[in-house]
Each structure stands twice: as C-alpha cells, then as structure tokens.
C-alpha cells in the first residue's frame, strides 16, 4: 500500500517541480541545494523506504509524459526521503570540455556515498559543483 502512495506522492511532487523547472528554476535549486547531515540508515524499514523511493523516481523519470529532468527527480527524491526522516545529499555537477554556450549539468542524490537518484552512464565524468557542505542545526537556526 505504501508503494502506491509513494507513486502518487512522487507524481504530484514531480508535476509541481516541473512548473518550477519551467518558470522558476532558481527556487527549486535553492530548496534542493541545502544539505543537512545524512541520516545513517539503521533499520531495515529505512533501507526499504530509500530503495522504494529510488525505484519510484526512476519509473516516473522514464514514464511520465512531462519528461521530468534530473533536477526535478532529485528534488522529488530528497523531499520524499525528508518526509520519512531521512536526510540525503543533493549534488550538482557539469561536464567539462563543452563549448562555453553549451553547459551540460546534472543533479543527483546520494546517501552514504551510494547513488539514490540520477544515474547516468557517464556520471563519473561530471565535475561536482556542490560539495556536500552539511548544514548543522546551529547554522539552521541562525
């Protein structure tokens, strides 16, 4: 039953994010780029949620008619995991060697140095712009 709700929730969030990708990409980036210390996955339940969210966003990325891009899927993954009390790391990178007017970027999500969302065959070629700077609770309140 939870898996069905994850699909519904991820679909709604993805549609919402698609609007922001089209009209206000900066807002979505600002919301996504804040990384808090990752949650250590201690229980089987947490690991199952991470796996299910990863699967759900992969399916939505492949089958949704609005063709969500990596920023959309990374945002959706991070948001749903956060709702389940799991902090992950949002990463943003670019490919070097492209002409100046053709920047190719990519967003992906990791947790415990494992890729959760945003797989590409050449992901290792991307130069990461967002070092996983973790925001502490004292930084969050100030």
Q: SSE layout and pairings?
A:
Blueprint: H1 2-23, H2 25-33, H3 44-63, H4 70-83, E1 89-95, E2 105-111, E3 114-117, E4 126-128, H5 137-141
Antiparallel strand pairs: 1-2, 1-4, 2-3
Helix pairs in contact: 1-2, 1-3, 1-4, 2-4, 3-4
Describe this structure in words.
With 142 residues, this protein is an alpha+beta fold. The chain has one domain. Helices cover 49% and strands 15% of the residues. It contains 5 helices and 4 strands. The chain has helices spanning 2-23, 25-33, 44-63, 70-83, 137-141, and strands at 89-95, 105-111, 114-117, 126-128. A 4-stranded antiparallel sheet has the order 3-2-1-4. A hairpin with a 2-residue loop joins strand 2 and strand 3 (114-117). The termini are far apart. The model has no long low-confidence stretch (mean pLDDT 88).
């Amino acid at each position: 039953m939870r898996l069905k709700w994850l699909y519904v929730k991820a679909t709604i969030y993805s549609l919402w994010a698609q609007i922001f990708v089209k009209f206000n990409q900066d807002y979505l980036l600002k919301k996504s780029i804040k990384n808090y210390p990752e949650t250590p996955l201690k229980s089987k339940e947490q690991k199952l949620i991470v796996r299910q969210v990863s699967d759900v966003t992969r399916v939505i990325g492949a089958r949704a008619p609005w063709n969500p891009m990596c920023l959309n899927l990374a945002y959706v993954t991070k948001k749903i995991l956060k709702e389940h009390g799991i902090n992950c790391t949002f990463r943003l990178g670019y490919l070097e060697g492209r002409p100046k007017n053709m920047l190719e970027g990519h967003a992906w999500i990791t947790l415990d140095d494992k890729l959760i969302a945003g797989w590409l065959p050449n992901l290792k070629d991307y130069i990461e712009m967002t070092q996983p700077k973790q925001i502490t609770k004292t930084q969050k309140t100030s």
